[in-house]
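Handout, section B. The chain below has 275 residues.
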Amino acid sequence: MPFLEYHGASLHYEFHSSESTAPPLVLVHGFLEDLHMWKELLPQWTAFGSVLSIDLPGHGATSSFGYEHSMAFMADAVHAIAMHLNLAPFLLLGHSMGGYVGLEFAVHYPEQLVGLGLFFSTPEPDSEERKLMRIRAVEIVKQNKNTFIRASIPQLFDAKTREVIKSDIDALIARTLEMETQGIIAAIYGMKQREDRSRILYQPPVHLKERGIAVFAGRQDTVIPFDQVQHWWKAPGVTFRYESPYGHMGHMSDKDGCVAAVLEWWQLITRGGAA
């Protein structure tokens, strides 16, 4: 497994290189996930171009770095790997928390992006109610992180989907149970403290203005409800939209639709156009 030494610890990643002239695609997973989440989506994408997937700090095989992993710190980690591989310019696709990281990346390293994809994610910060939920979540994790994981992950799916892909959900829970308690807590604090990045969708950096911001949203998403997405769904900086009939974990419940939509977006950017 490839690792990059970073601030005295290690960042884990996987890179699928291609001779394609398409800009590379960088994949950033969400909370309680790791780069394994993209595994079944990769074949069609790697057939088109180079793909980098990353384990964020405290997730998968990447080390934890401290008490809080801010979105900016995680964006810096993504930047370190991308620069190590000399990938820029590239597209960044972030699922949920990975989208928060992608937005932060666009703030600090805009010149390195030709595309930013919010994959069942949001540019908006936590509400005060949500921040209180984060605090309670930390206390539960401290008491028993396995209980937190087993209770949290099924809630990301609607009841029907939980039955249809139960074995896949069980496998996700099993992988997540291997996470360190501190990695979970550090990510929760980082999400709680994140800033409102909605302006990026309304006044995108110059490199993203004409070609770059995509939104992938689910009508049954209970984490980021579709009616909230409507607030910024048609922001002028959003040039590509995909509406899934499923929920927050579209990469599992709407795999074929998501694979095709991301590939279409990538192809449009490669050709220099927008949807």
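Note. The CA atoms of residues 215 and 233 lie 7 Å apart. Compare this with the example in section A.
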